[in-house]
Every structure is written in C-alpha cells, then in structure tokens.
Amino acid sequence: MANVLTALQPSGILHIGNYFGAIEPLVQLQNEGHRNVLFCVDYHAITVAQDPTQLRKNMLFAIATYLAAGVDPEKTILFQQSRVSEHTELGWVLNCIASMGELERMTQYKDKARGKGENVSVGLFDYPILMAADILLYDTEIVPIGEDQKQHVELARDLAERFNKRFGQTFVIPKPQIRQQGARIMGLDDPEHKMSKSAASEKNYISLMDDEKTVAKKIASAVTDSESTIVYDVNRKGLANLMTMYSLVTGMTMIEIETMYQGKGYGDFKKGLAQAITDYLKPMQEKINGYLTDEASLKQILDLGAEKAKHLAQTKMKLVREKIGVQL
Predict the structure, then answer these.
(1) Is residue 195 part of a domain?
(2) I want to staple 86 with a disulfide (CB 3.0 to 4.6 A). Which of 15, 48, 136, 317 is the partner?
(3) Cα gap 166→136, rounded to integer Å
(4) Of 187-196, 207-216, 290-299, 316-325, which range is least confident?
(5) Is 192 within the bounds of a domain?
(6) Which among 178, 128, 194, 126 has a CA at the least distance from the CA of 156?
(7) Is residue 95 part of a domain?
(8) Are 10 and 81 in contact (CB under 8 A)?
(9) What residues are annotated to the active site?
(10) CATH of the domain at 236
(11) Number of Cα atoms under 13 Å in the Cβ half of residue 233
(12) Higher pLDDT, 262 or 149
C-alpha cells in the first residue's frame, strides 16, 4: 500500500473539475487501503487577498464536501494546513535549496501573475515550494492531481532528490497520478483553458452546489461548434469536453453516448447532460448541507486530523533538522 496525498484550496467554489481531478481519485485510493492525507491548504489560499470571515466559512464548506464525497476520517488524515507548522518550516528549508530559475519557469505563476507587474505577491511566486513541503513532509508516494499541477509535483521530486543527494536519504520521491479521463475538465465558455474557480464568468464552471436550473443554463450556453453530430473527437474541443463530463457522471463510454444521441442534435444532448449532472450532484449537495448544520463536529474532525498529521510531520522535521545540522 502507498502513501497518498491530496490538497485543495478552500476557495468557497469547488467545481466538478476539482472533484473528478482530485477528490474522487483520492476516495478510490482510500478504499483500496492506502494511507491517505487530505488537507485544506489555507496558507496557499492567502497568496491572494482573502476575507477572513469568508475564508473560515470556505474551510468548513471544503471539509463538508470532502466528507460528502466519501472521505472517511478513520482512513484518511483530514486536517487544516496551518494547524501543522512543520509545513511552513520545511518550506523555508526547501527555499534554501531551490533556485529562482526553477520558480520563474512555473507556468501557473506566469498565468496568474500576468498583467500584475510588481504587485504580485511573493507568496504567489513561492507557493510551489510550500506545495513541495506539503508533499515531502508525509513520505508521499502518490499525488492524485490534474494535468496542470504536474509541473509542481516534478519540482517536489527535484527538490527531494537534491536534498537527498546533499544530505543523505531523507525524502521519498513522489509520483503524480493523473487520471486517464477527466484529469483536466475545460471551461464551458472556453474549452481551450481549464475549468477554473477564479474564472471571470460563472459560466466557466459547474459548481458542486449549482442547482438544476443553474446547471441547465450553464450547459445550454456551453461552447460547442458548428457541426451537428454527437461524436467524440478531441479536435472538437467543446463537444469533447462535454462528452467527458457526461461519461464521468454516468459511467457511460463515449461509444454509448454517441449511440444514445445518434440522429439527435446539441439541444437534446445538452438537456441530457444537464440532467445527468444534476442527478449526480443532488445526493452530494444534500450531504454537504447536512454536514454544515453541525460545525462543531467538522471542527472536531479537523482537530483529530491535525493531531495525527502533527505526529508524522514532527518526526520528519526532526530528521530534516538533524540532516542540515541545526538539531543540537
């Protein structure tokens, strides 16, 4: 069995891309008996301005979502990043062996910093180092991620190898695990770019909490093309993206979807997709709302998870301090 780690920002908006790219794969690995670590990366979240009151609400919503998706606190260590100070401590140590060039090459930083000039935060530039610390602190072997995060896991691998070479065997070398289908769900309004919580328009994504009317409206306006047949073709990016979603929420193959809509057009297809998404989300939404009615229980789960994570993190940081020579 392997050590598996997943982390998501508590942004308040978790969409189906987040769910199928990271949360569902973690639940599958959890049920296969792996040791799982899952946490809300609240320190990553503050790399951009946050309202403190809203951030606290987002944290509880994220935990409720994880539980509703099937995360079991008895099988998965579920906690809040800032409760375990070893994350930032190891982040500083890794800062001292990383190079500016490595961070400047991070494509996500380039995308998020574009147009901000000198106003971009140091945290936004440096957060891949904290992410590397998140991963390496727990002897992580598998990191379920979307395609866009692969570069960050590769940085964690490079830093682990560099540290091990310089100071002796200390860190496990993690591997990214990217699902074959649905690893990168694209924006409904722009199938050239990934579905994003920070998109300018809400028409870009399907939130896990969108109701039936909202889902139908967003799917109806989703970008497709001028052709009329419902056939999976990676070059028809808008349709391919919608068919991928259809497959994920129903379990149907692309051939089965094509057969279902043979001789039919986008109108029928989009209505069917919207209904399938709604049917998939409704049970999860009911569970999320149920968990949110008992905030005390959610906080207790985080307390217990932080204790478990702290034990693992302290053991690893003691070794790191010994290796670099600051442990007297």
Answers:
(1) no
(2) 317
(3) 16
(4) 187-196
(5) no
(6) 128
(7) yes
(8) no
(9) 112, 194, 197
(10) 1.10.240.10
(11) 9
(12) 262
